[in-house]
Write a structure and sequence with these properties.
- The protein is an alpha/beta fold and about 425 residues long.
- Among the domains are: about 80 residues, Phosphorylase Kinase, domain 1 (2-Layer Sandwich); about 120 residues, Orthogonal Bundle (Transferase(Phosphotransferase), domain 1), CATH 1.10.510.
- Helices cover about 15% and strands about 20% of the residues.
- The protein contains five helices and 18 strands.
- The strands form four sheets. The chain has an eight-stranded parallel β-sheet with strand order 1-2-3-4-5-6-7-8. A five-stranded antiparallel β-sheet has the order 9-10-11-13-12, covered by helices on one side. A three-stranded antiparallel β-sheet has the order 14-16-17, covered by helices on one side.
- It is globular, with a radius of gyration of 22 Å.
- The two termini are about 45 Å apart.
- The mean pLDDT is about 95.
Length: about 425
């Protein structure tokens, strides 16, 4: 994080990325002093409502993030930035997005948690678009022209006002990560009355184990253990608002709808109180670790890995076999996970996989047979990308093996 004082004193000359959060109400003129080098401008968490008309003076600008500000429309000046390809305006008050505000080279567009009712009819001209996050808006339809967005790989549409599933998406050849829960066309949430319920007062939360867009996971012990669970458990307390993937209530619903599988983190009980929605889960043993890391600004939709991370082809084949079995289970339960990634995968020292995080999951059993088949094809494509990512960290000595060739063939399918 940088400071306005540093900027005004000229101490940031030559930087590539600028991040300012100082309750700004106006765009600092001193930013133009960085025009020769600045590529990433992050003005999130301020009080901005406009960007200046001469923003294209930042001639190398590729990425603009202005989340958690006061914009009511996506600034048209963005469309005149020659190299701008990543735009993030999450959690503003945007009601209007015009074609002129979207550069034709846009690759990453994040408009989560706004008040958008319509997208430009010519969205299809964004032929480089790979990632599109629109959860938590008021969209009623998607433009038919999006059939031309053939590079689109990830889209988040949860928590909108879509009356029908957008069939235009199912013809996109690279779409792999799709979230659409919390729309009027979706199946109703199941109360899961058969599932064990505990009171939040029964639990005592301790240190945080992890957190994501939809909630915080903590170690917990029992004040009162009505069902005789293990003394130590994990509790995910859901945030009571829309997240980048949708409504937390839909995550809980999908997680419980999937049921038991040996490669899923085991849900034990739910907490369903007016002031708290939470899920009690089995505690993951300490010999499990994350298989991958989330996508970067460079990889956009694809996972990243620790530098030097290498796996044998035998280990990769075992991981893939477990994920294939898990995806088949999702299909049987008519739940699309929507976030099939290595960074959502835990692996033990002996190669056993545990999978979780249902924030982007969507139930689809109420849709037509054709739509169901299309959604399952999207999920299988995510699995193919997962395999491709795994092969990228395969040991060099194994890259000429029959097992490697067999997995490479699955990526081509």
């Amino acid at each position: 994080m940088h400071t306005l004082d540093q900027l005004n004193r000229g101490e940031l000359k030559g930087i590539v990325r600028l991040q300012l959060s100082e309750n700004l109400t106006a765009f600092p003129e001193a930013i133009y002093d960085l025009a020769d080098t600045l590529e990433i401008l992050d003005l999130s968490h301020n009080a901005l409502s406009h960007l200046p008309e001469d923003l294209p003076r930042l001639k190398k600008l590729r990425i603009v993030f202005c989340s958690n500000n006061r914009f009511t429309e996506l600034p048209a000046v963005l469309g005149r930035c020659e190299h701008l390809e990543m735009i993030g305006f999450k959690s503003n008050h945007i009601t209007r997005v015009t074609s002129s505000s979207l550069p034709s080279q846009t690759r990453w567009l994040i408009l989560t948690d706004n008040h958008i009712t319509d997208l430009p009819d010519d969205m299809g001209r964004l032929t480089q678009l790979q990632k599109l996050a629109l959860a938590g808006n008021r969209l009623r339809r998607l433009p038919d022209s999006m059939a031309a967005c053939r590079k689109l790989e990830l889209i988040r549409l949860s928590a909108n006002q879509l009356d029908a599933f957008p069939d235009v998406l199912l013809a996109l050849p690279r779409l792999a990560w799709l979230a659409f829960s919390g729309n009027p066309f979706c199946a109703a949430r199941d109360p899961h009355n058969e599932f064990k319920t505990v009171a939040f007062a029964d639990l005592s939360l301790h240190q945080v184990l992890g957190q994501g867009a939809s909630g915080v996971i903590s170690l917990a012990t029992w004040q009162r253990n009505p069902f005789g669970f293990d003394d130590k458990v994990a509790v995910k307390v859901f945030k009571g608002q829309v997240t980048s993937d949708g409504f937390p209530e839909d995550e809980l619903d999908a997680c419980l709808a999937v049921g038991y599988h040996e490669n899923l983190v085991t849900p034990l009980a739910k907490v369903a109180e007016a002031e708290c929605s939470a899920l009690v889960m089995g505690l993951i043993p300490p010999h499990y670790s994350n298989l991958g890391l989330p996508p970067s600004l460079v990889s956009c939709t694809r996972d990243t890995f620790d530098e030097g991370q290498v796996l044998s082809i035998d280990t990769i084949a075992r991981i893939v076999g477990q994920l294939e079995n898990l995806v088949a289970h999702f299909c049987q339960q008519k739940v699309s996970h929507g976030d099939l990634y290595a960074h959502n995968t835990l692996i033990s020292d002996d190669g056993h996989v545990l999978f979780g995080d249902f924030g982007a999951a969507s139930k689809y059993g109420n849709l037509s047979a054709t739509q169901q088949q299309g959604i399952e094809q999207v999920e299988r494509r995510a699995l193919a990308f997962f395999i491709d990512d795994m092969l990228s960290i395969c040991a060099e000595k194994d890259k000429h093996s029959l097992a490697y060739d067999a997995l490479r063939e699955k990526v081509r399918m």
